[in-house]
Amino acid sequence: MSLVKYEIFNKVAELNSFTKTAEALGVTQSAVSHAITSLEKEFSLPLFIRNHSTITLTKNAEGLLIVIRKILYYNNMLRQEVDAINGLNKGTVRVGVFTSISTNWIPSIVKEMEDYYPNIEIELLEGNYTEIKQWLQSGKLDCGFINNETYLESFEIAQLKRDRLLCVVSDQSPLSKERKISIQQIESVPFIMPIYQCYHDIQKIFEENKVTPNIRFENMNENSVFSMVENNLGISIMPEMIIPKSIDSIKAIPLEIDSYRTIGLAVRKPPSPATKKFSEVTRRWVLSKYT
Fold first, then answer.
1. 249 by DSSP, 3-state: which?
2. Phi, psi of 128 (to 5 degrees)
3. CA distance 157 to 148
4. Helices (H), the chain
């Protein structure tokens, strides 16, 4: 068993490129190619489908990758445990984040990690709820911020914050004078559906209250949603953390029915020492910010 080969295989699977893997790991491209060929001979099966300009994992290799990532994870944990015994806090933590977390929380959390644990490196991978869940399950991440309704076996999930879902309207809209927005009012006007970050939270509100919104546009990017709302092309629903306070022409109004998304941090069990430190700092920082 060669952990170096496994590390190369893992990085190729992540980057889908021998050239980029060689650059990332500081080795030659021929060394990467040799490591993959050697593993394919050792396993007696192909690991990648090679096209002219791209490579992709075979179905068999997708299953092997999960196991290999577990081996690399526990090897990394062993090194970190040894460092901890020797009084050192070292290691790398791979963290999954979504937009509002990377904008509002991560800069302060990373700064605090650097102050307390300067030898722990933080790697961030940004995606939506579904992507982060998949990355956690595949072993690509050590921990990740999730919607607390996400179920993940072999992960400890710490609840961090209940983030209100608010209705956002233009100051030109007749609804801008309302103190609260009802379900009936949502159905009566065009709706801009954000589908990148909080789509499932909004869908849950509609399903539970039997709402059929008049969806005019669907947008991946919340900034484009705010732009459309600002121009009075429709209303939307957004988590409070995402709504910019700098746009005076947008009003954020509570819904008649209290609705929230619950943000949690999913941490692989057992956590590495570095991941444990990140989790502790994150929970401490969130507690200090919202209490």
1. coil
2. -100, 180
3. 8
4. 3-15, 18-25, 29-43, 59-85, 99-104, 106-116, 129-137, 183-187, 199-208, 222-230, 273-290
How far, in whole angstroms, is CA 279 from its chain's centroid?
15
DSSP 232: T
Question: Coil, strand, or helix at residue 190?
Answer: strand
CB atoms within 10 A of CB 171: 13
- Residue 230: the pLDDT is 93
Q: What is the pLDDT of residues 209-232, one digit of tens each?
A: 888 899 998 876 788 899 999 999
- What is the spatial distance between Cα 10 and Cα 51, in angstroms, rounded to a whole number? 19
Q: Which residue has the tokens 């007749």?
A: 174
Give pLDDT, residue 178.
93
Q: 245 pLDDT band (50/70/90 cuts)?
A: confident
Handedness of CA 118, 91, 85, 137 (dihedral sign): positive
User: What's the average model confidence in pLDDT over 160-166?
Assistant: 94
User: What is the C-alpha to C-alpha distance for residues 176 and 180, in angstroms, rounded to an integer?
Assistant: 9
Q: Which residue has the tokens 């991941």?
A: 275
Q: What is the mean pLDDT of residues 183-208?
A: 86
* CA 49 from centre of chain: 28
Q: Are 244 and 250 in contact (CB under 8 A)?
A: yes
